[in-house]
Amino acid sequence: xxxxxxxxxxxxxxxxxxxxxxxxxxxxxxxxxxxxxxxxxxxxxxxxxxxxxxxxxxxxxxxxxxxxxxxxxxxxxxxxxxxxxxxxxxxxxxxxxxxxxxxxxxxxxxxxxxxxxxxxxxxxxxxxxxxxxxxxxxxxxxxxxxxxxxxxxxxxxxxxxxxxxxxxxxxxxxxxxxxxxxxxxxxxxxxxxxxxxxxxxxxxxxxxxxxxxxxxxxxxxxxxxxxxxxxxxxxxxxxxxxxxxxxxxxxxxxxxxxxxxxxxxxxxxxxxxxxxxxxxxxxxxxxxxxxxxxxxxxxxxxxxxxxxxxxxxxxxxxxxxxxxxxxxxxxxxxxxxxxxxxxxxxxxxxxxxxxxxxxxxxxxxxxxxxxxxxxxxxxxxxxxxxxxxxxxxxxxxxxxxxxxxxxxxxxxxxxxxxxxxxxxxxxxxxxxxxxxxxxxxxxxxxxxxxxxxxxxxxxxxxxxxxxxxxxxxxxxxxxxxxxxxxxxxxxxxxxxxxxxxxxxxxxxxxxxxxxxxxxxxxxxxxxxxxxxxxxxxxxxxxxxxxxxxxxxxxxxxxxxxxxxxxxxxxxxxxxxxxxxxxxxxxxxxxxxxxxxxxxxxxxxxxxxxxxxxxxxxxxxx
Length: 621
Prior knowledge:
Layout lengths: L4 E2 L2 H11 L2 E3 L11 H6 L2 E5 L6 E4 L20 E5 L3 H4 L8 H18 L12 H12 L1 H4 L6 H15 L6 E7 L2 E13 L1 H5 L5 E14 L5 E8 L10 E3 L7 E2 L2 E6 L6 E2 L3 E10 L2 H17 L11 E10 L5 E2 L11 E2 L6 H4 L32 H4 L1 H4 L8 H43 L6 H43 L19 H4 L3 H24 L4 H20 L2 H23 L1 H26 L1
Parallel strand pairs: 2-12, 6-17
Antiparallel strand pairs: 1-6, 2-16, 3-4, 3-5, 6-7, 7-8, 8-9, 9-10, 11-12, 12-13, 14-15
């Protein structure tokens, strides 16, 4: 796949405006796509040298997009980062409010979000005990409390409000490139803050958030650019799963503008409104991961027994992404219109290509969830992002021809394989002729004592050549079948037929179904209190039933499993699973206790069967 080539500024601007997305936010969202310039002017710049304290090298008001690329005190391992919510800067600008006043205003902002946004039902009811237990650990650990300071979201709300007071605007940074046969429109959406944890009970908070929506255009038969695919960035999805075909019914459009449902706080982009269950996966050590996968595979797939879904190699913590679309709408025909795009065309602005640092606080989070992101062109480790240097491959389109090219590419591939088939037939014919000659020679030398060595060599050569010819014939049969299918496919494509719009999707973005959202209040309440009650119960057992600890623990686990299955409507499945488990345990006990006797009986039965079978054959003969 070729390197992207930047379009001219005029053409890029016209195409970006023609297909720019419509964003539908969730009620309660406090941060919206904005121009990066006022954000940078509101930030200070810091450097984190390896093994030393972070140093502030520019205070708020000194930075702009023009000078952001200057990275002082650079050295191997140094991390440059912006800070949007520096308390010292918050009190030295604007009206110079006190921290107490800032705190009160921030509290009012959070209360307003609380009145506007209501959580969905059944987050924990949708997952099993193990995930709930990990969720409880996550809630009390440092990771859950976050390395981004607790007041950061409130401070960011106030700083963003100041930006809007200067000039309310809604903007994206646009880039248009040609890569191969595709023209790619990139809409880079910059949010000043990700408040998923503090505002919407999600996994993390972090300063700054770069999200992206891409539209893929191709020339039609008349040479005019038409949209064929779109791809929205969303966590836990990559490649083919990111994109949808333009004619997919899931892709909602307003005229020529795709509609994006933005998840509250996290700003992940979805194709349909709803509530999406997202699991944060924390990897297990390798031996435990392998054991967990094996046990889950045997229990669920081999025995088909009761249990929860999930990856056997991870501890999964459940969260919900709310993409309801009931908040502010931004875009053509919406409540708020986009400002003209901020272009990132060649020659690239210095802030795009020259600044490789983070766009917000470097929290030194070991899982990187609360570290700010890098800019559009880079990853956090300062390598160039694939979405930038290979936007076609980023969405898995590097293997997909445009609709106009599809039939031609199919016929080209058919011709290549057909040419290979011709060569294969010639090889098979030549080798078959040689095999016949060798076979005749082998027959002539067989059973002649003075030619034993030569005959053995000929026999081995005949065997090897025969196996080689069989492999070539098998390959030829497969290739001939592929040629026929490619011919049929080319005919369908030339007739205007296409494969199903969703055939490429392995794991679709799927909002929770009405049934999942319809968990009973009792089940939801049980999910919320079950792990806490279990921990309290185990503590009580340890204090009051220490002499019968093992039995009390088994009884306690059994009771919790019984209540869980009852609330989920899976009591019958649980009883079946318990029966299977008891039967397996009883079998193991019997094998352990009576293994020698069982071995003797097995040998006796086998001997009797062999004796009976041989005598039956003798009598019939």
